[in-house]
Design goal:
The chain is mainly α and 122 residues long. Helix content is 73%, strand content 0%. It has four helices and no strands.
């Protein structure tokens, strides 16, 4: 898993360079920083959403909505299976969570390093 994270990080960086080369008007450090920001933002949003779900923030809301639906529905379920359904915190895939965490931290670290280099030369 550890080698796979590094391989995908290198693949992301390669995709970033290819996209900057073909899409940017000029191949410069500013465009590379912008593209790394876009990639890291996507990974960061995914990671933070999974972190919030894993922490159990949505469990109470989900349980409340399930209970409300059961109480308000016209055909009451006597087995009350809504109590046994898994909550969002138990559905978080730990491998993908660790992958998104690694990618977001690595890309943000690279982004900060490039920004420091960019402003160091000005």
């Amino acid at each position: 898993m550890y080698r796979k994270n590094w391989f995908i990080l290198i693949l992301n960086i390669s995709i970033i360079f290819i996209m900057v080369y073909f899409r940017a008007p000029a191949f410069s450090l500013v465009h590379i920083i912008n593209m790394i920001f876009y990639f890291s933002l996507i990974y960061l949003v995914i990671f933070l959403a999974m972190y919030t779900m894993k922490g159990g923030f949505f469990d109470g809301v989900t349980f409340g909505f399930r209970r409300f639906r059961n109480v308000m529905s016209s055909h009451s379920d006597y087995l009350e299976e809504w109590k046994d359904k898994p909550l969002p915190s138990s559905k978080v895939n730990q491998r993908f969570y660790k992958f998104a965490r690694f990618q977001s931290i690595a890309l943000i670290t690279l982004l900060i390093a490039l920004v420091l280099i960019y402003y160091g030369y000005q």
